[in-house]
Design brief:
The complex is a heterodimer of chains A (255) and B (280).
Chain A: H1 3-15, H2 21-24, H3 28-46, H4 48-54, H5 56-69, H6 84-90, H7 100-114, H8 124-129, E1 138-142, E2 147-151, H9 155-161, E3 178-183, E4 190-194, H10 196-206, H11 211-221, H12 227-237, E5 240-245
Antiparallel strand pairs in A: 1-5, 2-3, 3-4
Chain B: E1 7-10, H1 16-21, E2 28-31, H2 42-53, E3 56-59, H3 73-86, E4 90-94, E5 97-100, E6 103-109, H4 115-132, E7 137-139, H5 154-165, E8 168-172, H6 173-183, H7 187-193, E9 199-205, E10 208-210, E11 214-219, H8 228-241, E12 246-249, H9 257-279
Parallel strand pairs in B: 1-2, 1-12, 2-3, 3-4, 4-7, 7-8, 8-9, 9-12
Antiparallel strand pairs in B: 5-6, 10-11
Helix pairs in contact in B: 4-5
Classes of the chains: A mainly alpha (255), B alpha/beta (280).
Bound molecules: fe (ii) ion.
Residues 139, 172, 175, 203, 249 of chain B line the site of fe (ii) ion.
Chain lengths: 255, 280
């Protein structure tokens, strides 16, 4: 190893608390503090609902424990913290608050929606252009910012209540299943609480199903689901970018 | 001077609307390109709008030129995409390292200025300039502690880097003031010896005293107005080398936009007074 690389290894280890003559200098703390403050500030900023629920001190301590294992690999610090939700599952101090990982997943979903590609959303006009029979020959492409998940409790409602950028949440956690869709159709990320049928429709879209199969999935979840209004709600929200026609499969010719 | 750039400001999201509406002559805006390395989102949209109205400067923090490693290819490719898209008037980086063995350290870290380091940094600057298709300016860092093993003094090191790579220099007067205080050298002597013909941009910023060590350790915190003694050094520098695009850097305790504009206008006045003097 070159002397410069060895020097940088020692300095980087010192930033993480290793003993070294360099790190013994009182001014070394300026570097150590700046680096850790940068990591921890970024994580606290990227997980605002965690900070709102647990307080800044708890969040910063959890962030420091996370940064110790997962320093950012990318200098775009608004993207730092992928995996923080999974880390919280294993983080003993979070044991008393078992809903924290799911809250962190929604904070992360917001970040990904916020920084996703800017693409126009599907308009209602495209829906009117679909002819009868198109349902089985068309797929809905999800908007690149669309992030959604299903929970066995009212995690979405609790999350919304802990974000200053949204209204309509409640500081309650009920044993009532609920889903959430986040997307950024224009400049800001929007949130839509999902029922089981809407979630099933989106989940089927994500796996590439046709409109017909998405509808079947929604109805299988909730036979009373109103498909027209369900699709209208999702399109109006900006969940999709376009309809993609699917070429019919060529007839199977036995060899 | 580079186009019509006089004094500029860092572009802060909280000041976005006022910054877009500002009408001052010669005003330009600097950003860290790393903050825009996303697929999309409102920040990129804002930067498009600003770029249509004002010259931009990209001041990178993550190329890690002084690391004993090649600049990260993915990072360099993203930087090139942004440079191609926004066509900034100025592109700069630091004589420091921050990314190392896959981890990004949000700071500008020191190193011994050895012959090996010079060879490595020159190669990294070449690589960056080749990838971006344009020269970059390299900034003198702030120093907090003595480092053993230097073969080169900083100004000679930077001059040799210019000679080997054709890069230019970004001279941060506050960094010189802070380093001179912490390492006990003369800021005036440093600035008088700096190769003015290679300076493409100047930085001015505020600093703070270390909470434990006080005046003995000044920190380049960008959390305060530019200090009077730094203004004096700046005026002396501009009188010697002539006007250069000058940035007021502020990253913490950010005041009202008008307050930053007042500092920026003061730098603008120094630059325009001086260029009148040169022309006369
Ligand atoms: Fe600077």
């Amino acid at each position: 190893m070159s002397p410069l690389a060895a020097w940088q290894d020692a300095f980087a280890a010192g930033l993480r608390g290793a003993e070294h003559p360099l790190a013994a200098h009182p001014a070394f703390a300026v570097y150590r503090n700046t680096v850790w403050k940068g990591w921890i500030d970024a994580l606290e900023a990227n997980y605002p609902a965690i900070a709102a629920l647990t307080g800044s001190d708890w969040t910063r301590a959890a962030a420091a424990a996370f940064a110790e294992i997962h320093a950012p690999s990318c200098p775009m610090l608004s993207l730092y913290g992928e995996g923080f939700a999974d880390f919280l599952v294993e983080f003993p101090p979070a044991g008393l608050l078992p809903f924290l990982p799911d809250i962190a997943r929604l904070d992360r979903g917001w970040t990904e929606a916020h920084l996703a590609a800017d693409v126009p959303v599907l308009g209602f006009g495209s829906l009117a252009e679909l002819d009868a029979g198109a349902m089985e020959r068309t797929r809905c492409r999800l908007h690149p910012s669309a992030r959604f998940a299903w929970f066995e409790t009212t995690i979405p409602t609790l999350w919304l209540a802990n974000r200053t950028d949204f209204e309509g949440g409640e500081l309650l956690l009920d044993d009532r299943p609920e889903g959430l869709l986040l997307a950024r159709p224009a400049e800001s990320v929007e949130a839509l609480v999902l029922d089981a049928a809407a979630f099933a429709f989106l989940d089927a879209s994500r796996s590439g199903a046709t409109l017909l199969d998405c509808a079947i999935a929604a109805l299988a979840t909730d036979p009373r689901a109103e498909l027209g209004s369900l699709l209208g709600r999702l399109i109006g929200f900006g969940a999709f970018t376009d309809f993609i026609p699917i070429e019919p499969e060529p007839p199977h010719v036995p060899a | 001077m580079n186009h019509d750039l006089t004094a500029g400001l860092g572009l802060k999201p909280i000041h976005y609307q006022e910054a877009l509406a500002a009408s001052a002559g010669g005003l330009w805006f600097e950003v860290h390109p790393e903050n825009y390395m996303a697929d999309g989102g409102p920040r990129l949209t804002w930067l498009e709008r600003m770029g249509a109205r004002r010259p931009l400067s990209f001041h990178g923090v993550a190329l890690s030129l002084a690391a004993d490693a090649d600049p990260d290819r993915g990072h360099l490719a993203r930087l090139k995409d942004l440079v191609d898209r926004f066509k900034p008037a100025l592109v700069s980086e630091h004589l420091a390292w921050s990314a190392w063995r896959g981890a990004y350290h949000p700071d500008l870290l020191p190193f011994p200025r050895t012959r090996q380091a010079l060879t490595r940094i020159a190669a990294n600057v070449h690589r960056a300039q080749d990838a971006l298709g344009r020269p970059i300016a390299v900034e003198n860092p702030s120093h907090y502690m003595p480092i053993d093993g230097h073969d080169w003094d900083e100004i000679d090191f930077l001059s040799e880097l210019v000679r080997r790579t054709g890069c230019s220099l970004l001279l941060d007067v506050n960094n010189v003031f802070v380093s001179a205080n912490n390492l006990r050298f003369s800021a005036e002597a440093y600035l008088d010896a700096f190769p003015g013909e290679h300076v493409a941009e100047i930085h001015l910023a505020g600093h703070a005293e270390d909470p434990d060590l006080g005046r003995a350790l000044l920190i380049d915190s960008h959390s305060a107005p530019v200090a009077d003694r730094v203004w004096a050094l700046y005026e002396r520098l501009v009188a010697r080398i002539g006007p250069r695009p000058t940035l007021i850097e502020r990253d913490d305790d950010i005041p009202a936009f008008a307050e930053l504009m007042a500092e920026r206008d003061r730098a603008h006045a120094v630059l325009t007074t001086c260029s009148r003097g040169v022309a006369a």
